[in-house]
Known about the structure:
Order of helices and strands: HHH
Helix content: 40-55%
Number of domains: 1
Strand content: under 5%
Structural class: mainly alpha
Number of helices: 3
Number of strands: 0
Distance between the termini: 46 Å
Amino acid sequence: MSVEAVPKLLAEGATEQEILEDYPELEPDDIRAILLYAQHMVAKEDVFDRVGAQG
């Protein structure tokens, strides 16, 4: 199970309980740690508005 798989599964509609059932090696604290890591990584990103084509 990769770190990136958990947010992907959640985004696709899986519940935390479903993930824990499908991946018994994970614990609830693991999912929270993955989400905290993802938040930390995204918080460092700069977001720029896309400039639309002039037409």
